[in-house]
Amino acid sequence: MSAFSLFAQKLEAEDGDAYSAKTASSISGFSGKGYVDFLPGGSSFVKITFKTKKSSNYAFKLTYSADSEKPSAVKVEIDDKYLVTQKLQASDSFTNNFLLNTALLEKGQHTVKVTGYRGKWSFDSIEVIEADDQLI
Q1: Is there a contact between 110 and 49 (Cβ–Cβ < 8 Å)?
Q2: What integer pLDDT is reported at residue 119 of this predicted model?
Q3: How far apart (Å, rounded) are the C-alpha atoms in residues 105 and 78?
């Protein structure tokens, strides 16, 4: 049995609503049309709305690039409920990603909120992946 089912959707950061953050495209390796730069010292965030086709457990995979001079951290919320806070490893391109916790979501519309803290980092995308029992 595989760790994931076949359902997955990639949510591009630049397609969301950015607050105190800016869309950019100067760092190579991003997917979509660009990415969102989070500025140091603030609480910049991006909200992205998405739909699930059925009620199930879903995992979330974040792809990013982070400055090495000052450690960065990210907080992820789904439908205004805390999912995880994660320290980011430095990278000068969008080769870093990590699998976040799973969340049980009902069929329908949802919102993911990605908030940046401390250092400068860039958010490329977050994948929503239907998780089977092996991830839970």
Answers
A1: yes
A2: 79
A3: 9
SS3 content of the chain, % helix, strand, coil (to 5): 5, 65, 30
Residue whose pair of structure tokens reads 């239907």 in the numeric block: 130
Rounded to the nearest angstrom, the gap between the alpha carbon of residue 112 and the centroid of all alpha carbons in its chain is 8
pLDDT of res. 2: 43
Instruction: Report the chain (136 residues): mean pLDDT per 10 consecutive residues.
Output: 63 95 91 90 88 93 84 90 90 83 94 89 93 57
DSSP of 97-112: EEEEEEEEE-SEEEEE
Beta strand 21-24 with 56-66 is unpaired
Distance from C-alpha of 34 to C-alpha of 133, rounded to nearest angstrom = 34
